[in-house]
Amino acid sequence: MPAPAEFLQYVDDNANVFIDRLRTAVSYRSVSGDLKRREDVKEMGEWLNKKLNEVGVTNTKLVDLGYQTKDGKKLDVKLPPVVLGRIGEDPKKTTVLVYGHYDVQPADKKDGWTTEDPFKLEVLADGRMVGRGSTDDKGPVLGWINVLQYHHEKKKVLPVNLRFCFEGMEESGSEGLDALIIKESKPGGWFYGTNCVCIVCISPVYPRHTSANQFAAFQFQSDNYWLNKDQPAVTYGVRGLSYFYVTITGPKKDLHSGIFGRTVHEPMTDLFALFSKLVSTDGTILIPGIEQMVPSPTPQERALYERLHYSMKDLEESVGASIAIVENTADTLMHRMRYPSLSIHGIQGAFSDDGPKSVIPGQIIGKFSIRLVPPMTAKKVEAQVELFLQTEFAKLKSKNTIKIDHMEGANPWLANYDHWNFRAAKIATQAVYKKDPDFTREGGSIPVTLTFQDALNVNVLLLPMGRGDDGAHAQNEKLDRGNFINGTKLLGSYLYEVATIDKKQRAQCK
Ligand code: BES
Ligand code: MN
Ligand code: MN
């Protein structure tokens, strides 16, 4: 059953109220990876809890996950609260669990943001709303608050029972959340009785590079600019993540390279030698055994990627350069979605900002990660990588020392999309965007996705609000006004469709 026309109208009429609320959300500097910002993350969680209360979800709780840990040791820093909420206790209704995160990646004007402040949402004339967290993941989370506001204000009963789980540590590996989900999924727990899970997310609404667009809804001001880039998607997989820190230590302190160069083993030289063995410039992972974990695609599987609405131009526009590894879309998308990848992220202690500083850094930490796809598991990959690094380091015959640490791993997730949950999402997408969504997997990672699927034994899907060119984690992250408004309509419509998928339709799906 489609969402009531009154709801769709309400969303259009209240767009400015919704955008103002997003502006407030973005103003919280809730960077989970920066311990100095922990108070801001906590305040953001408390604000979100209050917003839920204001729109009728009075049954909420802020869950304290205790203290953060590092290398197995407890730090003197509290984890931000998990915001749990529930509304609707009707046993005849479907119960949908909604997950999102209210923490964000770091952002600094100095990195090249062209707006005044990354934490001050700026709505540009072409509809782009620029600010950290706008698309990942504050905009999508607030989409739910918008849907709730309509039902609360107009005194409409929701078509489903809803459970909310909003966390503040996603960008830092979701520490502590797995255990909470498992506990709350048991009889008597907050999530017990959930029938399906919906995760609101960024990205797979591809930016389309086409000039014709028949949807007036996408026309935003001022110079008659048509937002002609849109192909909605529903997502059935995310990659996992294993993240490594390699610390190489030699001298007690930094050394003058004129005095000590060529007289001692240098940590940075060792690290470069090691890191050159991880991945080739065409993206192939060189660590033995990693690529071999993943089966090659069958022709049928390849055909799935051939069908997706994507062009090399889309990729080039998103990255702002012509640097694609392969020149066709199916392989490009498979590299993103169904193959593992290895990226080197940075070197701590490398004096990168200090001009021609001629020292030998005494200790450096190199960081890299591997994205995982089934049947890889974080545990297997960690063991393989550790063994490889130790073996290769030994071959260097360096007298420096190596220490390998890894972040809590995230396993890959893949869902069966021949399921009524996906069918509801598809119908809702058709209703809002007048197009069939692409069914996609995603390259990014959301650590708890698989946890929800396993703990609750239910179908999980990702319903994206933003677009592939939103620049999540990057400078000038944005969410388009049209995506926020239509995304809100999509979330509401999905609830109505999930509620009315009847027994017969459910039985048709696996
Ligand atoms: N929402 C993203 C994950 C994502 C990216 C999903 C693209 C779909 C498409 C999430 O906030 C994120 O950035 N996750 C981190 C996880 C990590 C820190 C454990 C990631 O993917 O790097
Ligand atoms: Mn996210
Ligand atoms: Mn993110």
TrEMBL record:
The keyword Transferase does not apply. Residues 237-394 form the Peptidase M20 dimerisation domain. It comes from the Eukaryota. Keywords: Hydrolase, Metal-binding, Protease. GO terms for biological process: proteolysis. One of its GO terms (molecular function) is metal ion binding. Belongs to the peptidase M20A family. This is Peptidase M20 dimerisation domain-containing protein. It comes from Sphagnurus paluster.
